Amino acid sequence: MPGTTVVMEAAIDERDGDGPVRLGALYREHGRAVLRAAYRVTGNLAEAEDVLQTVFLRLATRGTDGVGRAYLLRAAVNGGLDCLRTRRWGDADPAESVARAPGPDRLAESGALREALRDALARLAPRTAEMFLLRHVEGLPNREIAALLGTTPGTVAVTVNRARAQLRELLGDWRGER
Questions:
Q1: Would you say residue 132 has pLDDT above 90?
Q2: Helical H runs in the chain?
Q3: Domain containing 176 — which CATH number?
Q4: Do 84 and 123 belong to one domain?
Q5: Are residues 109 and 138 in the same domain?
Q6: Tens digits of per-residue pLDDT, 140-167?
Q7: Is 5 among the domain residues?
Q8: Fewest C-beta in 10 Å: which of 48, 77, 137, 168?
Q9: For the segment 60-105, what is each residue's pLDDT rounded down to a tens digit?
Q10: Residues 176, 103 share a domain
């Protein structure tokens, strides 16, 4: 994150007024968490850095009122999901697909499973994938997710449970069921 940090801090320092102080503090406090969340979703550092920059550049233009850790994690997850969907529907490089194919050793299989999971997450409805990732990747409790998304904890619990069932079905090959 060294390159990203320099670019973002320079952009923050160029602004005037109280906004940059709040934005800079948010970036210093939560920037790494945003990058980690985006990386966990995308599996690609360059894409995660793009998400990080996008999240904070949007805040620079929209303001930081009411923005906290949960909001930033949600923005990172959504940005990461957008990258997955773009990658899934974009022009995929065939050589890249071959490079991600499972090999004989366990490490290659593990990497292929992560790619399969990312692809399966990209197939879920955006809100479902978002709830699943906030719950199981970021570890937020249902109550906090519900408050963040303007719904009830029960709705979050049901949606996350359905997401697990959908992911089980989509990843059936990896579980030996298809």
A1: yes
A2: 2-14, 19-42, 45-62, 69-89, 94-100, 106-123, 126-136, 142-149, 153-170
A3: 1.10.10.10
A4: no
A5: yes
A6: 899 999 998 999 999 999 999 999 999 9
A7: yes
A8: 168
A9: 888 888 888 889 998 999 999 888 888 766 544 544 544 444 444 5
A10: yes
C-alpha distances out from residue 47 to 42, 50, 66, 166, 173, Å: 7, 5, 26, 26, 27
Neighbours of 31 (CB within 10 A): 20
Chain mean position to CA 169: 22
Alpha helices in 63-93 (DSSP H): 69-89
Q: Enter the tokens of residue 42.
A: 């995308």
Q: Identify the residue whose tokens are 């809100």.
A: 127
Return d(Cα 85, Cα 123) in angstroms, integer.
Answer: 8
Question: Model's pTM, two decimal places?
Answer: 0.62
Question: How far is residue 132's CA from residue 153's CA, in Å, rounded to a whole number?
Answer: 13
**Could you give the CA distance from residue 13 to residue 83 in angstroms, rounded to a whole number?**
28
Residue 161 CB neighbours (<10 A) = 11
Residue 123's identity, in one-letter code, is R
**The CATH number of the domain where 53 resides is what?**
1.10.1740.10
